[in-house]
UniProtKB/TrEMBL annotation:
Bilayer-spanning residue ranges: 54-72
Phylogenetic placement of the source organism: Bacteria, Bacillati, Actinomycetota, Actinomycetes, Kitasatosporales
Pfam families: DUF881
Name of the protein described by the UniProt record: DUF881 domain-containing protein
Disordered, as annotated region: 282-340
Comp. bias intervals (Low complexity): 315-327
Source organism: Streptomyces lonarensis
UniProt keyword list: Coiled coil, Membrane, Transmembrane, Transmembrane helix
Family under the similarity heading: Belongs to the UPF0749 family.
C-alpha cells in the first residue's frame, strides 16, 4: 500500500545568534532600567541651583575654619604644656633635695644620740647602764659564742597545703615549729647566753616567736629555714650547759622523732645587731647619790652605735656567765611578751 505523504515539517531554521540573546541584551542595554530612569530625571531637573552651590561652599569653608582653629590652639598650647612640665620637674627636684636634707638631719641626730649615749655610759654607773643596754638589746654585741643551725627534715612539707597551726598531725611532718624555736632559745638563755639572735633578728626580753601560715615570725618578721641561732657568751660553757639542759634534750628529741636537722658549733667571734624596735617603758634619773653598781662585765663587746655601728667596747672577761635573773628571755618565756 503506497504510503501517503505526511504533514510537511515546519521550517526550524533560526538565527545563528539566537542562543546569545543574554549577551546581546547586556551589550544593547548596559544600564539597568532604574539607572536610566534616574538619569532621565536628572536631565529633566537641570543643573544644580546657585543656592545649593553656596551652601556647599559655606560648609567647606566652615570645616576648613574649624580645622585651622584647632591646629592654632594646639600650637599655642604647646609652650604652656612645656612650661608646666618644666615646673613639675623643678618641683620634683626641690622635693628630692628637701628629702635628702631631712635624711641628712636624721642621720646627724642619730649620731648625736649615739654620742650622748656613749657619754652617759662612760660616766657614773656606766657599767650598770651598759650592761642594761646590752641585756635589753639596745646595742650591738660582738664576742665569742655558739652557732646553732636548725632546719626542717629532708622532704618536709611536700604536699602539705596547710600552715603550721593547721591539723594535729603537723608535728609528724618534720617541719620546725615556732614552739620548737622557743624551747631551743630558752635553753640558750638558761645556759648563760648574754645575747641571742635568729637569722640576724636580735631577741630581747619582749620578743615573741610565733607562727602565721607557713612562716615562723620573730617580732612579726617572717623567717625562713634554715634558722641560724647565734648566742654570745663563753663558747665552752654555753655548749656544755645547753647540751646538758632542757634545750639540748629538746634538740635531741626533734632529731630522733621528727628528723629535724640541727648542728651546734663554737665560734670565736659573732656579731649580733641591735634590736630593730625598742620601747622605753620606764626610766629613773641618775642623781649624784645614785649607786654605782658596776656588776659583772659580760664577755661580749658592746657597741652602742645606732644600727650596730661601732661606737665603743666593753672590757672582755671570758668565762663570765650571766645570772639567770638578768637573762632577757627566762626559760620557757620566749614568745610571751612581758616587761623585764
Amino acid at each position: 500500500m503506497p504510503q501517503q505523504p505526511g504533514p510537511e515539517r515546519a521550517d526550524r531554521t533560526t538565527r545563528p545568534d539566537a542562543s546569545m540573546w543574554l549577551l546581546n541584551e547586556v551589550m544593547d542595554h548596559p544600564l539597568d532600567a532604574g539607572y536610566e530612569e534616574a538619569a532621565r530625571r536628572r536631565a529633566a531637573g537641570g543643573a544644580p541651583s546657585g543656592g545649593g552651590r553656596l551652601w556647599l561652599i559655606a560648609g567647606l569653608l566652615l570645616t576648613a575654619m574649624v580645622i585651622t582653629l584647632g591646629a592654632l590652639q594646639t600650637r599655642a598650647g604647646a609652650p604652656a604644656l612645656a612650661q608646666e612640665r618644666r615646673e613639675l620637674a623643678e618641683r620634683a627636684e626641690r622635693g628630692t633635695e628637701e628629702a635628702e636634707a631631712l635624711q641628712q638631719e636624721v642621720d646627724d641626730l642619730r649620731d648625736h644620740v649615739a654620742e650622748l649615749r656613749r657619754a652617759s655610759l662612760t660616766g657614773g654607773s656606766g657599767g650598770a647602764a651598759e650592761l642594761t643596754a646590752l641585756l635589753a638589746g639596745a646595742i650591738a654585741v660582738t664576742g665569742p659564742g655558739v652557732e646553732l643551725v636548725l632546719d626542717d627534715a629532708e622532704g618536709a612539707g611536700d604536699g602539705l597545703g596547710g600552715g603550721p597551726r593547721e591539723g594535729s598531725g603537723f608535728a609528724d611532718t618534720g617541719r620546725l615549729r615556732d614552739r620548737d624555736l622557743q624551747r631551743v632559745v630558752n635553753g640558750l638563755w638558761s645556759a648563760g647566753a648574754e645575747a641571742v639572735a635568729i637569722n640576724g633578728q636580735r631577741l630581747t626580753a619582749v620578743s615573741a616567736i610565733r607562727a602565721a601560715g607557713d612562716a615562723v615570725l620573730v617580732d612579726n618578721r617572717p623567717l625562713v629555714p634554715p634558722y641560724t641561732v647565734h648566742a654570745v657568751g663563753d663558747p665552752q660553757t654555753l655548749r656544755s650547759a645547753f647540751e646538758a639542759g632542757a634545750g639540748g634534750a629538746t634538740l635531741e628529741s626533734l632529731r630522733e622523732h621528727y628528723g629535724i636537722r640541727g648542728s651546734l658549733s663554737e665560734r670565736e667571734e659573732l656579731r649580733l645587731p641591735a634590736a630593730s624596735r625598742l620601747v622605753l617603758r620606764s626610766a629613773t634619773p641618775a642623781g649624784p647619790g645614785a649607786p654605782d653598781d658596776e656588776g659583772p662585765e659580760p664577755s661580749g663587746t658592746a657597741t652602742p652605735g645606732e644600727g650596730g655601728e661601732d661606737a665603743g667596747t666593753l672590757p672582755q672577761e671570758p668565762g663570765w656567765e650571766a645570772p639567770a635573773q638578768q637573762a632577757p628571755g627566762p626559760p620557757g618565756n620566749v614568745g610571751e611578751e612581758h616587761t623585764p
